[in-house]
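wait is this the right file?? whatever heres the structure
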């Protein structure tokens, strides 16, 4: 157990005590502490506890509101004008395959992607559809990140970082705190313990009993305060740790080092920061005044998305197993945003941020170790409405993959002539779950675990991946 406290006192019904700044205790794997796990590795060379883990991570880019499947990855230019992609198509690196016109950078990387044109679940309601996709329909109702941490442990056994993280716009810094996010729709723990909820750095959340990050009120909002506070702790701990054994020193170093480095984007090469930067994709000032419900439109700005994706990559590098990134504004009916004025802003931002992520992972040799999933709660109606938008549609939904050691460079399934229904190779939420779980775990080994509930084990072991990808 590692506990670091601040000098601030807090009064409550149990009296006064010092406020804890950082506590890292048991790591969620049979009660082992980090020093215990390090000792096991030192003695055995290879910790067999992790045989069921594949040493991979998943980043789920959730386009909140229901991204249009037509204007993203299935433009269907052979359909009548009121059905096909409003802005046309762009060629990709896969012969004969096109994406929506706002995705030229992803188009050039299509050979590193697999897009699904037959993903369907039939639910057109924001809340329940969001939860359904995030959970992959598993019976616990828990999002896939929480399911992962229930099996793998709340924190990474080597770095001490949370295994399940949430990156909303506010995570990228104070200036993004007013941007919208609806994380509760995609972060439910279902009937699993609340401690399995994703760690949300923007709120200074906690991982109960395993990793707690607590700061005096207002300090976490100041990112520089967080980083400088950790630096102070490192300097002040030198004399205290001088008498500690090497394993405890290492535990301290990896935990604080991981926390600091993961959230400090200043360590990145300026060219990398520029490649990810989506700050130019701002909503025009006059747009909100022209629209019903226009007050909500400025909050949809995707200016933080690039930094969110960069932070997701950094978290995966530091040992986080599952990262959920949210980007709002995709509810394109036309009363606020429509396809006509929403896609030219949100589409290019996703194109830049996601393509930067794919290229970055490739350059760092991480393509096999990190799976990117792009999806949302549902698709949009095949026919464009009178307001220049598309309405809710659960019969065909956006879904794309990159990396993770899966088979890339292909289109899975096919939509019908009016891009409204799967015509070939139906893909279900259970198949999405199976694909993700098979990237993260060895199901045969998970089947042998006695430390997890049968319902959780069943969700991992019995879900079947998309066959064309594995």
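ok assuming it is, sequence goes like this
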């Amino acid at each position: 157990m590692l506990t670091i406290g601040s000098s601030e006192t807090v009064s409550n019904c149990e009296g006064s005590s010092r406020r804890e700044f950082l506590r890292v205790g048991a790591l969620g794997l049979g009660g082992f502490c980090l020093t215990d796990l390090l000792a096991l590795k030192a003695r055995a060379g290879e910790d067999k506890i992790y045989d069921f883990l594949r040493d991979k991570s998943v980043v789920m880019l959730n386009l909140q509101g229901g991204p249009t499947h037509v204007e993203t990855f299935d433009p269907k230019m052979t359909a009548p004008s009121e059905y096909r992609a409003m802005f046309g198509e762009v060629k990709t690196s896969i012969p004969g395959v096109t994406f929506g016109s706002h995705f030229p950078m992803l188009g050039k990387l299509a050979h590193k992607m697999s897009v699904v044109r037959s993903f369907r679940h039939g639910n057109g309601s924001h809340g329940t559809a969001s939860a359904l996709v995030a959970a992959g329909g598993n019976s616990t109702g828990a999002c896939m990140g929480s399911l992962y941490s229930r099996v793998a442990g709340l924190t990474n056994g080597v770095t001490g970082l949370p295994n399940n993280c949430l990156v909303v716009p506010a995570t990228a810094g104070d200036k993004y705190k007013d941007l919208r996010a609806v994380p509760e729709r995609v972060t439910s723990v279902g009937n699993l313990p609340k401690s399995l909820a994703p760690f949300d750095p923007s709120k200074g959340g906690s991982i109960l009993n395993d990793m707690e990050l607590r700061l005096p009120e207002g300090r976490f909002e100041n990112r520089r305060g967080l980083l400088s506070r950790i630096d102070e702790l490192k300097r002040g701990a030198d004399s205290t740790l001088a008498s500690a054994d090497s394993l405890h020193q290492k535990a301290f170093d990896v935990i604080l080092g991981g926390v600091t480095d993961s959230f400090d984007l200043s360590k990145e090469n300026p060219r990398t920061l520029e490649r990810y930067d989506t700050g130019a994709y701002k909503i025009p000032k006059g747009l909100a005044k022209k629209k019903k419900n226009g007050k909500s439109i400025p909050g949809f700005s995707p200016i933080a998305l690039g930094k969110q994706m960069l932070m997701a990559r950094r978290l995966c590098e530091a040992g986080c197993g599952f990262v959920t990134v949210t980007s709002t504004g995709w509810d394109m009916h036309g009363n606020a945003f429509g396809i006509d004025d929403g896609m030219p802003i949100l589409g290019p931002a996703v194109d830049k941020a996601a393509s930067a992520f794919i290229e970055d992972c490739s350059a760092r040799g991480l393509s096999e170790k990190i799976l990117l999933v792009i999806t949302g709660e549902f698709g949009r109606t095949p026919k464009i409405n009178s307001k220049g938008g598309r309405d809710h549609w659960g019969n065909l939904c956006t879904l794309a993959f990159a990396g993770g050691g899966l088979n890339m460079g292909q289109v899975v399934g096919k939509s019908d002539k009016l891009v409204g229904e799967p015509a070939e190779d139906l893909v279900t939420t259970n198949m999405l779950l199976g694909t993700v779980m098979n990237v993260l775990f060895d199901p045969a080994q998970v089947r042998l675990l006695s430390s997890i509930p049968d319902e959780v084990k069943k969700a991992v072991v019995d879900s079947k991946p998309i066959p064309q990808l594995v």
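The chain has a mean pLDDT of 83. so i think its the right one actually
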